[in-house]
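Supplementary Note 3. Input sequence used for the single-chain structure prediction.
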Amino acid sequence: MSVSTAGTEAFARELRKVLGRDAIVSAPERLEAYAADTYWKALAAQAAGAPLGRADLAVLARSEEDVAATLRLANRHLVPVVPWGGGSGSQGGAVATEGGIVLDLTGLDQVLEVDEQSLAVTAQAGVNGRRLELELNERGLMLPHYPASVDLATVGGYVAARGSGVLSTRYGKIEDLVLSLRVAMPTGELIDTVGVPRHAVGPDLTQLFVGSEGTLGVITHATLQLAPLPAARHFEAVSFPSLEEGIAAVRAGLTRGYRPSVVRMYDELATRLSLGPVVGEELEGVCTLLCFEGDPGVVDAEAEGVLALSVAHGASVLPGRLSEIWWERRYDFYRPPHHPELPAIWGTIEAVASYSRIHDVYRAVKAAVEGPYAQHDLSLRVHLSHWYPWGTMIYGRFVVPDGGPDAVALHDKIWEDGVRAILGAGGVINDHHGVGLKLAPYMRAQYGPALDTLRRIKEGLDPNRIMNPGKLDL
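The predicted structure, written as discrete structure tokens, is reproduced below.
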């Protein structure tokens, strides 16, 4: 069986009886708000008056039972369902390319429990990230997941896209912070995963839904690990003679047990064109921002150890206020005038790899994207901001000032060349932005035969394939 919009009207009539008329949005001008997330192609298409997808309806869920009822009826009528949180995704994961309904989860906005003894919060999927953080801060707590999208993103989106925040080097990505989930299944059941992440009662069902982008079900609430607000934050900055020396120094620090909360390393071009303008300084070299947090004594010792390793790898110590200014302005990178706007083309060619391969991946991406598109005035600004004991990632922000009449084709070719370079050098094509529409064409190249296993899981959970069709190549 396959999804179709043919059953949408009958579905809507039944759903109005269950949820009420005010839960169904059909006015075209209101549906326009769901036509694009922050994916460049979706924004460009919407601006041109030809969106990549149009939902026939939006459903405004007000409870977890509303979500389950919606899925139950959509499954019966074979109506496609696209979950919608804050609309902040950059990969087209929330675009309704097959029509059907957008399931707006922002009405699920309750913080259900803050367990201060266990340092855990249970929040519904539609809770806004900024609002949640402010509420936790009032209790002396934080959810150590500070993504650039915090003003728009929701708890459900954090988990569904397997996102990351700027403190990940110390606290981990969202998959490291998820303790358990409640999920509405495509056939309408609500299920709870095991209440703690460390157990031996079979496979970890929680992680199956982390990063699934609404293709396997709808996350309705999550229990997440918290941390106390740090007693101290210590900021430092250094400049390395090369990216190779910088990566070697950070790796050495991590292998010795140091856990800075922030390591943000900019290559030469990104130092000059991205970091410098935001912090208000003319900077050169491989500038690296560092933050250490926690107990003051431990913080000072960690900072001293990492600085010593950095100097041993040729670094010059810069004023720590540069990192403090970055911390205060860290979201400005993603807002005008630092963030491009149409008719520019932009995107983040992101990759993650082991330390033994990360240099090859960096060089391959630079060679594939920078030189061949110089005629279009393309700039590729790379920083490394998420670090692991086994490897790190590159975050390559490209900008073409004006894409011209062939902007879409140019955008797609830049992405194709960048992705093929990553895979050819032994990297993985994404660290934390998700897949959506943008990377779906490359899932077979990334996974190989294992993609068929993912597809079989999809078929078992979503037999009528109503959930977010076209995403993740499932």
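The chain is about 35% helix and 20% strand. The chain has a mean pLDDT of 96.
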